[in-house]
Design goal:
The complex is a heterodimer. Helices cover 53% and strands 8% of the residues of chain A. Chain A is built from 9 helices and 4 strands. Chain A has a 4-stranded antiparallel beta sheet with strand order 1-2-4-3. In chain A, β1 (2-5) and β2 form a beta hairpin. In chain A, α3 (37-43) crosses α7 (151-169), α4 crosses α7 and α7 packs antiparallel against α9 (189-209). Chain A is globular, with a radius of gyration of 24 Å. Mean pLDDT of chain A is 84; it is low at 98-113. Chain B is α+β, with helices and mostly antiparallel strands. Chain B is built from 4 helices and 3 strands; from the N terminus they run αβααβαβ. The longest helix of chain B has 14 residues, at 69-82. Classes of the chains: A alpha+beta, B alpha+beta. At the A-B interface, α4, α7 and α9 of A face α2, α4 and β3 of B.
């Protein structure tokens, strides 16, 4: 996955493999708080210290402010889902070579040609294992655009997904015991998702949100 | 101005008008209904959470309160090391507004009476 910050403030997300695209598409469901009261408490915490205000004030907050917050978060998730709907396969992949990849001593190598090898050719030759076998297509890569107006929504959605992963799986815990438990129970995916979103959120703060 | 004699008609208000002037249309709020908490200062507090990035918390404090980066970083570090930080103190309505903004940024925030 590669992120490009464009001049107009939008972001181009490119070279996404299937797993990354699929994980991003899970953001709305991962960030969902409907079925988890603890998760709701985290996202919509009680705004007053106990005893400082009357029941009426708490009711007012729940009736007047909380719906705005819920709408804000829900709108962000919808925009993220809409942007991902527009993901398209990239067409810039190099054409598939049908012949056997070049190996040392064949006519493709510089020794056989008797000339100097270009850096690109050398890199291509050294990346031998990365070249798909003859007849097999390279994996499809995807890209999509995040409009400048949706940049904040994306951060909010990914951060909300992190908050929910933390609430449900303690995905923020990086101690050996927790990781081992998740591994043994075959439930490493939430940790990996959390780490991916953390990396993206960090890039978002440093490269997009900070003036 | 006339010194004596009959008063001018201008000063003789009709009875219905006098009645209207005597009872102006003003709502009087009983004392017990006045919320004194509106006058008291309130603290806006940000609590530590294990998820939000430190750089993000700093950024939000700068955005919402207009703090310089040094102040925002100091408050963020207080949140991180002590578990919470009072990030603003003032009137209740503005405190509510700030708590709403902090919560819309997904920070753990609340308010309590100062003192």
């Amino acid at each position: 996955m590669t992120l490009y910050r464009l001049e107009d403030g939008s972001v181009r997300v490119a070279h996404l493999d299937e797993w990354h695209l699929d994980t991003l598409r899970k953001i709305p469901s991962l960030a969902n708080v409907e079925d988890d009261e603890n998760a709701r408490q985290r996202l919509f915490p009680v705004p007053f210290e106990p005893g400082d205000v009357s029941e009426e004030c708490l009711r007012d907050w729940d009736e007047l402010v909380r719906p705005d917050l819920e709408r804000l978060f829900a709108d962000s998730l919808q925009r993220v889902a809409a942007d991902l709907e527009l993901a398209v396969p990239e067409t810039t992949d190099p054409p598939v070579k049908e012949e056997t990849p070049a190996t040392e001593g064949t006519a493709e190598t510089p020794d056989a040609k008797g000339g100097a090898e270009s850096p690109q050719a050398r890199r291509r030759r050294r990346k031998g294992p990365g070249i798909p076998p003859p007849g097999k297509k390279p994996p499809v890569r995807w890209s999509f655009l995040i409009p400048a107006a949706h940049v904040e929504d994306w951060f909010r959605a990914m951060n909300q997904a992190r908050l929910m992963l933390s609430e449900k799986y303690e995905a923020h815990r990086m101690d050996d015991a927790h990781i081992a438990n998740m591994f043994i129970s075959g439930n490493m995916e939430p940790l990996i998702q959390y780490e991916l979103f953390t990396g993206l959120c960090s890039w978002w703060v440093n490269s997009l949100l900070t003036p | 101005m006339q010194k004596s004699g009959k008063p001018s008609l201008w000063f003789e208000a009709p009875r219905f008008m006098a009645a209207a002037i005597d009872t102006p249309d003003i709502d009087v709020i009983p004392e017990e209904e006045i919320d004194e908490s509106l006058d008291q200062p309130w603290h806006v507090i940000v609590f530590d959470d294990p998820v939000n990035l430190m750089t993000y918390v700093t950024l939000i404090l700068q955005r919402i309160f207009g703090y310089p980066v040094e102040t925002a970083e100091r408050m963020m570090m207080e949140v991180h090391t002590r578990g919470k930080s009072v990030v603003w103190t003032g009137g209740r309505e503005r405190a509510e507004h700030y708590v709403q903004q902090l919560q819309s940024s997904q920070l753990l925030a609340a308010m309590r009476k100062a003192g």
